[in-house]
């Protein structure tokens, strides 16, 4: 199951996320989403856990808990709407 983790402190690393979720089961991957140009955290990430029961347990156990000074917002990740890419409008927005 893919899990959305929001309201992350800028100091949270992928290792921090992995460690927090490993208390509930096997973690396949943990990713903090970063700004392409600055490299700073955008304040959210994703954790993938193969076992749905363990993932649900992690969601229930960590949602509303504090990590590095901020209260986590956690839920099952939803797929992006069709045709959407993050951050930029398609077409570039420039007119010639």
TrEMBL record:
Q: Where is the composition biased (Basic residues)?
A: 86-96
- Coiled coil ranges (UniProt) are none
One Pfam family name is: RRM_1
> Which residues does the UniProt record annotate as the domain RRM?
1-79
Query: What keywords are assigned to this protein?
Result: RNA-binding
User: Which SMART domains does the annotation name?
Assistant: RRM (SM00360)
- Gene3D superfamilies in alphabetical order: 3.30.70.330
Q: Residue ranges of region Disordered?
A: 76-96
The protein's matches in InterPro entries, at most eight in alphabetical order, are given as: Nucleotide-bd_a/b_plait_sf (IPR012677), RBD_domain_sf (IPR035979), RRM_dom (IPR000504), SLIRP/GR-RBP-like (IPR052462)
PANTHER family hit by this protein: HETEROGENEOUS NUCLEAR RIBONUCLEOPROTEIN 87F-RELATED (PTHR48027)
Q: Under which name does UniProt file this protein?
A: RNP-1 like RNA-binding protein
Which source organism does the UniProt entry give? Candidatus Brocadia sinica JPN1
